[in-house]
Each structure stands twice: as C-alpha cells, then as structure tokens.
Amino acid sequence: VLEKEAQLHEAKVRAQMEAQQAAFEQMRMKLAGEETLMGQKMEVKRREFLFMQNAEKKAEDDLRRQRLKDEAKAREDLKELKKQLNMSQEEMKKAETRKAEEQARTAELMIRMKE
Questions:
Q1: How many CB atoms lie within 10 A of CB 113?
Q2: 49-90 pLDDT, tens per residue?
C-alpha cells in the first residue's frame, strides 16, 4: 500500500512538473511572439520615419529647384527689360535727332523765306 501511495505521489509530482514545464514553455512562446511583434512594430515605425525623412528631403529639393528656376527666370526677365530699355532709349535718341533735324530744316526755310 505504501509503495502504491509513493508511486501515486510520484506520478502526481511528475504530472505537476510537466504541467509547470508546459506552462513555462507556453509563456516562453508567448513572450517570443510578443518580442517578434514588437520587432515588427519597430521596423514599421523605422520605415515610416525613413519615408517621412525622404519625403521632407524631396520637398526641400523640389523647393530648391523651383527657387533656382524662379531666379533664372527673373534674370532672363531682367535682361529682357534692360534690352527693351536700351531700345527705348535708342528710339528716343532717334526721335530727338529727327526732331532737331526737322527744327533745323524749319529754321533754314524761315531764313530763306526772310531773304
């Protein structure tokens, strides 16, 4: 009877230890799964950060390119305005010359008429 009780007690202890081992293994697997999930979440966050960083860099590059284009356009516009100003000044000089020539001819005619 004592031997049977000892065997029964030993079987209970063994079953209890196996149950504890299984619970421990289950907990270890759960923690490993959570660790993997956390790693995946961290990777997603890292990729989101890199995406935002690249988007910011692209936006800055686009703004810089646009600013350079705008500056080049402004330089071209300024050249064109200077060219038009020079042409206007030349036309004004020509008009003044024509007017002076006309006045000189008128004066000549007046002088001849008085003679």
A1: 7
A2: 999 999 999 999 999 999 999 999 999 999 999 999 988 888
